[in-house]
Amino acid sequence: MKELAHIFQVDRITIYHWFNHGESRRLAGLYDRAGKGRQPILQQEPREQIRQWIKLYPKNVNRVIALIQQEFAMQASQSTIKRI
Fold first, then answer.
1. Contact at 8 Å (CB) between 76 and 47?
2. What is the pLDDT of residues 4-50, one digit of tens each?
3. DSSP code of 38?
4. Is the pTM of this model over 0.85?
5. Number of folded domains that form the chain
6. Does residue 31 share a domain with residue 2?
7. How far apart are CA 29 and CA 75, in angstroms?
């Protein structure tokens, strides 16, 4: 396990999980499954509305954040708005 962890540059616990998944689900257990990772905070519909607000207020990010809080009751940072 130590050698494998060194070769793949992962922790020993990761190797342990790989072996468990391989034993329980055979070869398919070694592949990443869909749906892993963090889900997006904003779904597609709010994103479209936010894009419209950004076009209306391109230099006023705080105004867009206030509209998001008012309309969707969600918190969004300036960096989130810039990514959208």
1. no
2. 889 989 998 888 888 887 776 666 656 666 666 777 777 777 888 88
3. P
4. no
5. 2
6. yes
7. 37
